[in-house]
C-alpha cells in the first residue's frame, strides 16, 4: 500500500507533463505515457529498497527475473486505465500485488484522483479505505449491473461489441469504464454485480481479482481450458455467478 500510494501521488503530480509524451504499444489506441514509465520506475526502486532481491513483473519493463518456487513476485500496473489518464477521465489507478507461485496473496489498488485505497490479503478480507468490502446480494441476472471492457485491436472490438449487444437485453445495464483493476474493485464493493473481460494481462487483475475474491466474489482467472476463453477474467456476486457465466457463453463471449 505504501508503494502504490507513493506511485499514485507521482502519477497525479506529473500528469500535465506526462500526457505530453505519449507512445503506443499494440495498436494506435494502446497508449503509454511518461507517467506510466515514471510510476513503474518509482515502484521498482521502492520495492528494491524494501524487498531486495525479489522479482518484479511490470507492464512497462517486463520481468526482472524468474521467481523460484515459493518466492514472492511483485506484479505492477503503474497506471491501469492509461487512456483515461490521458484524457483526464478520473477512473485510473496504480495496482501492486504480491504473488507466490502465480497466486495473489496481497494486493493494493490506489486511485490518484479520489485517493481511494483498496486492499486485500488472502484469507483476511478486503477493504476500501479501511472499511470491509462485500459483494452485492444480487440474485436475478435481469436486475444486475455488469461491467466489461474492450481490447485495443479493431477485429476483437467488433466481436466484443457483438457479444455485448446480445448481453444487454439480459441484464439491467452494462458499464465500461476503462480500468480493469477498478472494475474488479467495483464488484468487491457491490457497485456492479459482475464483470468479464478478455485480453487482460496479469498486472491488470493481480490485485483487483484478489480484492474481489476476498470480498466474496466468484473469481475465474485466465486458464487454458476456461469456457470463456484462455484470456478471460470472470468475476461475479455468488447469487448470479452461474446465471451470468451461462449467459455470457450463450451471447458469444466464449468466441471473443
From TrEMBL:
Keywords on record: Hydrolase, Magnesium, Metal-binding
One Pfam family cited in the UniProt record for this chain: Inositol_P
Domain of life, per lineage: Bacteria
InterPro entries per UniProt: IMPase, Inositol_monoP_metal-BS, Inositol_monophosphatase-like, Inositol_monophosphatase_CS
E.C. number(s) listed in UniProt: 3.1.3.25
Gene Ontology biological process terms from the UniProt entry: inositol metabolic process; phosphatidylinositol phosphate biosynthetic process; signal transduction
GO MF, one example: inositol monophosphate 1-phosphatase activity
Cofactor(s) this protein cannot do without: Mg(2+)
Catalyses which reaction(s): a myo-inositol phosphate + H2O = myo-inositol + phosphate
Binding site for Mg(2+): 59, 77, 79-80, 204
PANTHER family for this protein: INOSITOL MONOPHOSPHATASE, INOSITOL-1-MONOPHOSPHATASE-RELATED
Name by which UniProt lists this protein: Inositol-1-monophosphatase
Organism in which the protein naturally occurs: Labedaea rhizosphaerae
Amino acid at each position: 500500500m505504501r508503494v502504490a500510494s507513493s506511485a499514485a501521488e507521482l502519477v497525479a503530480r506529473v500528469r500535465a507533463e506526462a500526457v505530453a509524451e505519449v507512445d503506443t504499444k499494440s495498436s494506435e489506441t494502446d497508449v503509454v505515457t511518461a507517467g506510466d514509465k515514471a510510476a513503474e520506475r518509482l515502484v521498482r526502486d521502492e520495492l528494491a529498497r524494501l524487498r531486495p532481491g525479489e522479482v518484479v513483473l511490470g507492464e512497462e519493463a517486463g520481468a526482472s527475473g524468474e521467481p523460484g518456487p515459493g518466492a514472492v513476485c511483485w506484479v505492477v500496473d503503474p497506471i491501469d486505465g492509461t487512456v483515461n489518464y490521458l484524457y483526464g477521465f478520473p477512473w485510473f489507478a496504480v495496482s501492486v500485488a504480491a504473488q507466490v507461485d502465480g497466486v495473489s496473496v496481497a494486493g493494493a489498488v490506489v486511485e490518484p484522483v479520489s485517493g481511494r485505497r483498496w486492499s486485500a490479503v488472502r484469507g483476511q478480507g478486503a477493504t476500501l479505505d479501511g472499511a470491509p468490502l462485500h459483494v452485492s446480494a444480487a440474485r436475478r441476472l435481469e436486475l444486475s449491473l455488469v461491467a466489461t471492457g474492450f481490447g485495443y485491436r479493431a477485429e476483437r472490438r467488433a466481436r466484443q461489441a457483438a457479444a455485448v449487444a446480445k448481453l444487454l437485453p439480459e441484464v439491467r445495464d452494462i458499464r465500461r469504464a476503462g480500468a480493469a483493476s477498478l472494475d474488479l474493485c467495483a464488484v468487491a464493493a457491490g457497485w456492479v454485480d459482475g464483470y468479464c473481460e478478455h485480453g487482460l494481462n496479469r498486472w491488470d487483475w493481480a490485485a483487483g481479482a484478489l480484492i474481489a475474491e476476498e470480498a466474496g466474489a466468484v473469481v475465474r482467472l485466465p486458464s487454458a481450458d476456461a469456457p470463456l476463453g484462455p484470456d478471460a477474467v470472470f468475476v461475479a456476486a455468488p447469487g448470479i455467478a452461474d446465471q451470468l457465466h451461462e449467459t455470457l457463453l450463450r451471447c458469444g463471449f466464449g468466441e471473443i
